[in-house]
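Trying the structure run again after the queue cleared.
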Amino acid sequence: MKVPLPWLREYCDPALDVHAIEERLTMTGTKVEAIHHHGVPAEENFAIGRVLSAERHPDADRLKVCSVDLGEDQPATIVCGAPNVEAGQTVAVARPGAVMPGGAKLGQAKLRGVLSEGMILAEHELQIDAGASKGIMVLADALAPGTPLADALPISMDVIELEITPNRPDCLGVYGVARELHAATGAPLAPAPWSEDPGSAGELAGARVVVECPDLCPRFTARVFEDVKIGPSPAWLKARLSAAGQRPINNVVDITNYAMLLSGQPLHAFDLDRVAGATLTVRRAREGEQVQTLDGQTRTLDGETVLIEDADGPTSIAGLMGGARSEVQEQTTRVLLEVASWSGPNIHRSSWALGLRSEASSRFEKGLAPEQCMHAQALATRLMIELCGARVAPGTIDAGGEQWSDRPAQTIRLRAARVRAILGVPVDVARQAEILGALDFACTRLEDGLDVSVPALRRADVTREIDLIEEVARIDGLERLPATLPARRGAAGRLSHAQRVRRAAEDALAGRGLHEIVGWSFTDPALLERLLIEPGHPLGRVVTLENPLSSDQSIMRPTLLGSLLDAARHNVARGRPDIAIFESGTVYRAAEPPPAGDEDGQPTAPVATPADEHHGLGALLSGALAPRSWRAPEPAQADFFAAKALLGELLDRFHVRWRVAPREWPFLHPGRSAAVLAQAGDGGEGEQEIVLGPLGELHPLVAERWGLARAAAFMIDLGKLAAVAPEVVAFREFGAFPVLRQDLAVTLPETVGAEQLLASVREAAGPTLESAEIFDVYAGEQVGEGRRSLALALAFRALDRTLTDEDVAPVRERVLAAMRAIGGELRG
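Done. Tokens:
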């Protein structure tokens, strides 16, 4: 919300500059997003002038040479191209040296041979009304020539842009912000601009209102104005509206916008002569009903949208936008002014359903107090009389008003001891009462604190004692509170085991040169199709958002692979094909649906299955694994084994017993994909394997869709990793006796994997085998078709003696027997 500073100072002027006001408002919870400047940068060289003569330019039909009295010894000669300039007018003039809103500095200039000593100004040139006609601005004759223009018009003003939180709709008006500034600085607060009401209560003749859905329209007020003269608003009003981001239209519409900006309560003006039957009915729309709004669009409504209709049908969408059929026009002489209160959740729902958002809806959806209706009515009534020459008809329609006029305020006990316990410092009870009184709360002094009555405009926000303590704290100064930790007995501040595992895993990948990325938790439903994931796959159980930001962010991501691929594509498109990235973040999968029935086909009772929401870690490699150099002009490329090696270094850091097993994943290359398995348990009978996640090269179709030639990736569940990783790593004694090393070369069918060979060797060798590694692979004519040769390096060690060949010989025989059992033969 934009608030022109001179307008704010009219109600609370703390004698501070704009930056000090920004600091006080922000520090007390009303955040200032930005400070803008509206109008001319400096007020110097702008003055009031009177046109003494306006003669046709000798060399230009559309120009006039004007003699303008600026209160000096000699009148100034100004060439003007406006069609409405005439002798005798009082005008706004920019002298040479004046700086215009765009930053251009005005100087003397010859126009078709005539020297012009300034410029006669139009409203749009001062940013008073950007949509005004190109004619000059004519001022009141009472203004003396030479008077600074700033004394007559707001031509230069600072504007503060505020971020109003949804719980503070009372600050959506200038006066509400002035109240906050009053509480924050102690500067006097002017009386509310609606404190005097020129209108009257009672029955209103000539118009009627029927509310059929009081649950969605708790209050509807209306007044009738006769003898209305439609015309442009005065310049001061248009300048304030323009600075606040509103476009001036005519005096009646401008009054409704001005009253809304000042009070926070939207209003709407109907041309009463165009309201059929002089009756307005508020009701729920019928499914598929249509109405044409002021923006010229015909909108189709559903059964939960509230509309206002007359005898001929719908005229406007309640709380969102008025209708074209009953809008105020130049010929309007009778106005029905409506100020109503609407259900905030319903307005928000309807606004979203129709894709229609307005200044009114943005306020109503936050929940305005019904008491604000008469604030805006009183304010608008005074302006209609002053600016439109209108005559207000006796009486006011106030449907539902009886339940709000005498509604008692909620009273909350505020204990001094509780304030001190929460804030950590004492705040004098008199100071508490001063703060709350400045915010329009009524306080009664008690022995142990205060009884506080909540004003109507804060009814939805302040409901508990802790809310009052927050009000006291933010105004008294949150920056003054001591920085302390909450008192906790028997607790030490340290990371959990899962948190330590997460950080160590991220550090491990960063230490290997991978760059961390951060992707969105929301993603496009089309991601699953692009990753070749079928609906029945576990990764296809997505969590769908009920209220998404957009259609391409309507589900929660079921995998980290999507954001990793998006980042890779971004880099490749910018000439960076060598990629090593990782992401640590939460993934979401919907609960597994319950079975349809038992073995006999009978329906079973539903079983609540929790959704899978876990913290994952994913890495993606593509392109060269090392920089190209003269020593390595063609470095190794990312593939399955590069990703496995990276994963192995990560898992080994946590002392996890792991292996990979062949498994197909939709998004991975068939035959080049695996599941990462970790052993959970101490190696006894209760030991089991858990799947940490997928590992492998990307499916060629997937890689192509993201513009990658070849890539490898892995993704693991860090929660499962933390579950199998020991919290404390036990020391294992180094052997004092030397290692006995033996190398074996064995030929195996190609269908037997290296992991299977190593597992059989370890099982057969027993405890004396310290390590077994494959150091060479060969396939060719010497080993036969369909077979390959694997060379193993075996290391044996005993903790109590030096092993000899005789000690290892029986172990070697058991190893060879295990190899033969899986189709292996000793080579050579």
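The first helix runs from residue 5 to 9. Worth checking whether this holds up in the mutant runs.
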